[in-house]
Design brief:
NADH-Q_oxidrdct_subunit; about 0% strand; elongated; about 110 residues
Length: about 110
């Protein structure tokens, strides 16, 4: 029986590029699909803000919708890229067997 403070670290199923990437490395590793996701979701937020507003609140609704879309999409892109660097998501380097992944985690 474990203590409350103990938790099991997830095992990376893909090759680990950097086990603990810095924010600068994560931001420099964003690829074109993540930039596209940021632009698309920011645009969708602006459109929702435009269509859901009245005439007097249209500008602030577009701003808040765009800001919400930008915030959410950059958070999503950051986490996705960080998980690729940590080996938790497909990073284009192939999948490794689970036994090797457990050996890497025990080092």
């Amino acid at each position: 029986m474990g203590r409350i403070t103990e938790w099991e670290r997830p095992v990376p199923r893909y090759p680990v590029i950097d086990p603990n990437p810095t924010p600068g490395k994560v931001w420099s590793s964003l690829d074109l699909s993540e930039y596209g996701r940021i632009v698309l979701l920011t645009s969708i937020g602006c459109i929702i803000g435009l269509t859901s507003a009245t005439r007097t609140t249209r500008t602030s609704s577009v701003f808040m919708g765009g800001l919400s879309g930008f915030w959410g999409s950059t958070t999503w892109a950051y986490m996705s890229t960080r998980n690729k660097l940590r080996g938790m998501k497909d990073n284009g380097l192939g999948r490794i067997p689970i036994e090797i992944a457990h050996q890497q985690m025990s080092k």
